[in-house]
Amino acid sequence: MKRLCTVLVSMFITLMLLMSIAEAKGGSFGGRSPSSSSSSSSRSSFSSSSSSSRSSGSFGGRSSSSGFSSSKSSGSTISASRSKPEPIRVTRDNVMSSIGKKGATGAAAGVLYKDFQTRNSPPINTRTTVSKADVDKVFTPQYRSSRRTDYYGGYHPTPSSYYNQSVYANHSGGYGIWDLMLFNSIMDNVGDRGMYYHHQNDSSFQQWRTDANAACAAGDTDVCDKLKDLDREMAEYKAKGTTINPAYVTPGIDPDIYEANNIDVSKLSEIKICTGSVGSDYSRYANTISKITKLKVNAISSNGSVDTLTKMATGECDIGFVQDDIAMSPNLVKLATMNQLEVGMLVCNKESKVKTVADISKQNTILVGSDQTGSQFTLNELKKYITNLGEAQINNTATALQAAEMVQSLPNSCYFSVSTPKSPAFMNLDKSNKTYGIPIFSFNMTKKQPYPLVTVDVSYYKNLTQEEYKKYGWFVDGGIDTIAVSTSLVAPQSWIDQNKELFSLLTLEKTNIQTSLQ
Length: 518
Hints:
This protein is α/β, with parallel strands linked by helices and 518 residues long. The chain has four domains: 23-89, no CATH class; 94-258, no CATH class; 265-339 and 489-516, 3-Layer(aba) Sandwich (D-Maltodextrin-Binding Protein, domain 2), CATH 3.40.190.10; 342-485, D-Maltodextrin-Binding Protein, domain 2, CATH 3.40.190.10. It is 37% helix and 14% strand. It has 20 helices and 14 strands. Helix 13 links the parallel strand 3 (271-274) and strand 4. It is elongated, with a radius of gyration of 34 Å. Residues 17-100 and 120-130 have low confidence and may be disordered.
């Protein structure tokens, strides 16, 4: 027993001695200081947003303190714990100065537009409304220049003497309407190479490539390597079956930053745009487009979507607003789509006793305005799915506004129109209190019918919504249940082929145009 106690005392003394030695060295049991916490470790992780990463000037570099942290323990001794650095986030601050002559690869490829899209602040002109102040400020050349600087910030191409001679010497301002920085960023693989793929048939892009090839042929192996890499990526696009879209612009940016600085606006051709009938929303859109872009727009009235297609075919209009259910031709290119869906509304005189589409018979007349309207086309499509609509007589001898007046005085008449819910025609009908909206819905409608079903909320109208539908419609929500139709600004391919530079400029102004379609 005495011997056992002696052994235990000896072990205890040895243990205490070991602990004293460990404390004297500033460590803790297991080699970890009490102050080596998770918070200390997280602070020590390298972050590319730190000032040290910005000053290092090397992609993937780290400051001398990255991976280390120091903190005081309770015993006033200093401990140092090494931690694994976090992966470096690619930003324009740490990648642009480290691309080197061979161009960007891996995570650095396309960093310009990738980084631009992930920012918290959206493009300045993507907004729900456009005020006069916006027009005066946002779309001036000076403000465009600041947005361009913001996009290319940190990117400083260093062209060789060969590239300077073949490219910069004659095209320092750009090629056609395209800014030279766009081409440089594509070659260095920090820009959106999708722009090169989709615009490869543009004469300006082809001229740049000719000049870049000349620099390669003159002995610039750096340019040769970059062009070879560009061609490799273009082959990948083609192998994937990517369809060339001449209207493509980099997603998420203000495309006008790609515009060359030396565009002579006074030499731009006038664009004739068909706007639909007088007083329509399209007329207002055309006027706004002329204000917020550098384009010279001449608004031309038409009798509707069908008439607009005819006028574009004959050259009376260059581009125009057309309902998407009509604009199905592959020879039409969409420039922008209205932000708000239009609705196909059927409004009937109260004396007609028509309350649902099932009540429509041979005794009724549906007024659609001119046979050149998109409304006539949409009504004909609906007849395929709602048979009762086909029983009524169709009157297409008046204008849309005249038809909206006629339905108020003709007892057995109805009025059908595709427009925005707050169009002048619908609002005037609501004020007259002589008509009400008819739900365009039938249980006989097949799932194949092409139009989305929507409800025009009860808050839109005081009188047009029938009393029994003010609380609940067919689709539960109160209001007028009907169909939706989208409308786009389109350009014929034949016009695009003859006006490639002007179409490219339209492409760059796409965001500004889309903004105006409110």
